[in-house]
Structures are given as structure tokens and as C-alpha cells.
Design brief:
Layout (H helix, E strand, L loop, with lengths): L1 H27 L4 H10 L5 H30 L7 H12 L6 H26 L4 H50 L4 H11 L5 H15 L4 H12 L2 H16 L3 H30 L1 H34 L1
Helix pairs in contact: 1-3, 3-5, 4-6, 5-6, 6-7, 6-11, 7-8, 8-9, 9-10, 10-11
């Protein structure tokens, strides 16, 4: 028993030392050749204030780069890095609003890091509860597996909740867009104005519209920017909106009229979804009623009658 606990403590110490070593390596590694060359070419003398500001900026960069480097390294070691799972996970990260290039590596590194932390935290808990070594190892491995799988469920929930938010606030955004276009603004200016107005109501929809306007300002064609919008969100209503806007732009028809008709259809679909959700509540309430409410009602209604019946049977049996 003592040898097993010592081995467990040694494994924990080795894993934590390895993590600390990786952090120190990426934090204290020498600057790159490009940074050295730029520093030599600048050659400007630095005073005490400039040195303190440089040290503060280096410390801030150290904390952020160290964590990102650790997550990236651990994410590269994470299993499941095959061609089938990678596009699906990357698509879910995009739907959830994480669009950076290293988002997938950071996500995988976070899964491995969470599994290691839960495994390391359960071992002292098991020792405090005086559990056997085999049980500590088994439950620690189960905790690590749970820590590795929980981020997947969280990512699915985050992606679905963001898509539901976009669908819920899209009719209001289309109404604002119709007002802006009818007031004389162009489509790009209307998107920018709607993005600014919807910032407090729906940050997800506002950020997506703002990104479309930024891409068009940077020189990307409007059709490609709108197509990227549908790929980033995965929302069916936005896909139909983009198809309508692209077709209207190609045919040269009235954008305001097309937006008004499309806004009416989107609002109708939202009302139909609400009616469908309301119709499903009757079926969903069956299980709580049967399992929770009906037993309590039976106890309240039939309880006094059962007590009376038992007393009557007892009296008859006593007389007999």
C-alpha cells in the first residue's frame, strides 16, 4: 500500500514538473533572429521609463504566450487528430464563435490539460478518504476520461446556443435592415448600421454582420463575404438570406422589397417554430407528471382511504 502511494505521488510530481518545464522553456527561450535584427537596427537608447514599459509588455506577452504555447503543445499530442474528426471539431468551433487559426490546437490542449488536472486532484481526495490504491487509480482514470469528454458536450452546447441566438434575433435585424435600405442607405452601410444597433441585443449576429462589412471594405467581393457568413454560422435562415441577396444583386431588382418579403417569411418561420415548441410541451410534460406529480396525488387522495380500510380490517380481525 505504501509503495503504491509513493509511486502515485512520484507520477504526479513528474507530470507537474514536465508541465512546469514546458512553461519555462516557452517563457524563457531566447528571442528570434528577426527580433534581434530589428532591435539592432533600431538602436534607439532607452531610458528608465521606456525600460519599465518594455519589461511590463514583455511580462504580459510572457503570460499569454506561455499559456498558448502550452495549450498548443499539449493539443498537438492529443489523440483523435484524424481527417474525419478534425473538420467536424473545427466547424463546431467556428459555429461557437472561435475562429482563430490555433483554436483547434488550444481546444485539444484544454481537453488534455483538464483531464490531467482532474486526475491530479482526485488522487489526494482518494488518499484523504482512505481508499485503496486500485480504487484511487481507477476513479482517477475515470475522472480524467470525464475531463476529456466534457469539453465536447460544452462545445456542442455553445455552438447550438449561438445558432439559436442568431435565429431568434434575425427577424428584428432584417426589419432594421429594411428601414435602413428604404431610408437610402446601401446594403453595406445598412449591414454596418444593423451591426451597431444589434450589439446589445445579439452580440453574435452583430459580430457576424460587422465581419461581413469589414471583409467587403478590405476588398473581398460581397458574394464571397456573404457566403463566408453562412459557412461561419451554419444557420439555415442566414443561408436563405444570403441566397436572396446574391440573386437580387445579380438580377438588379429592388433590395428593399426583397428584404421586406424575406423578413415576413423569416418572421413567419419564427412563429411556426414557437408554435411547434409549444405543441411539444404537452408530450414533454407527460414524464414529469407520471414520475413526480401523480405519485404525490395518489398518496394525498388514497392515503386517508387506505388508513380507514386498514383500521376497519384491524377491527374486524380483533372482533373475530
Amino acid at each position: 500500500m505504501v509503495i503504491s502511494i509513493q509511486l502515485i505521488a512520484l507520477l504526479i510530481f513528474a507530470s507537474l514538473s514536465l508541465c512546469a518545464g514546458v512553461l519555462l522553456y516557452f517563457a524563457l527561450r531566447p528571442p528570434e533572429a528577426l527580433d534581434k535584427r530589428l532591435g539592432a537596427l533600431s538602436g534607439a537608447p532607452e531610458g528608465p521609463a521606456e525600460k519599465r514599459a518594455a519589461l511590463a509588455s514583455k511580462a504580459k506577452k510572457f503570460s499569454s504566450s506561455a499559456m498558448n504555447s502550452l495549450k498548443g503543445v499539449v493539443g498537438g499530442l492529443a489523440p483523435g487528430k484524424n481527417r474525419k474528426e478534425e473538420p467536424k471539431t473545427k466547424k463546431l468551433l467556428t459555429y461557437a464563435g472561435y475562429r482563430k487559426e490555433n483554436a483547434l490546437r488550444i481546444y485539444r490542449g484544454g481537453k488534455i490539460f483538464l483531464a490531467m488536472v482532474l486526475f491530479a486532484l482526485y488522487i489526494p481526495l482518494g488518499l484523504w478518504l482512505n481508499q485503496p490504491a486500485a480504487a484511487i487509480l481507477l476513479l482517477g482514470v475515470l475522472a480524467a476520461i470525464a475531463g476529456y469528454l466534457v469539453p465536447d458536450y460544452w462545445l456542442n452546447h455553445a455552438a447550438r446556443s449561438r445558432q439559436r441566438e442568431i435565429v431568434r434575433h434575425l427577424p428584428d435585424a432584417l426589419d432594421l435592415m429594411v428601414v435602413c435600405v428604404e431610408a437610402g442607405l446601401g446594403l453595406d452601410a445598412a449591414l454596418a448600421r444593423v451591426a451597431g444597433e444589434m450589439r446589445l441585443t445579439s452580440s453574435a449576429l452583430s459580430s457576424e454582420f460587422l465581419l461581413v462589412t469589414q471583409e467587403t471594405k478590405a476588398g473581398k467581393p460581397r458574394s464571397e463575404a456573404l457566403h463566408d457568413l453562412t459557412m461561419r454560422t451554419g444557420v439555415e435562415d442566414l443561408s436563405s438570406l444570403v441566397a436572396m441577396l446574391v440573386q437580387t444583386d445579380k438580377l438588379g431588382t429592388s433590395v428593399a422589397q426583397a428584404l421586406r418579403v424575406h423578413a415576413d417569411s423569416v418572421r413567419t418561420r419564427r412563429r411556426q417554430r414557437a408554435e411547434e415548441a409549444a405543441a411539444k410541451t404537452t408530450v414533454k410534460l407527460v414524464f414529469p407528471l407520471v414520475l413526480c406529480v401523480f405519485p404525490a396525488l395518489l398518496v394525498v387522495v388514497l392515503g386517508p382511504a387506505l388508513v380507514s380500510i386498514i383500521r376497519a380490517i384491524g377491527q374486524i380481525a380483533g372482533k373475530g
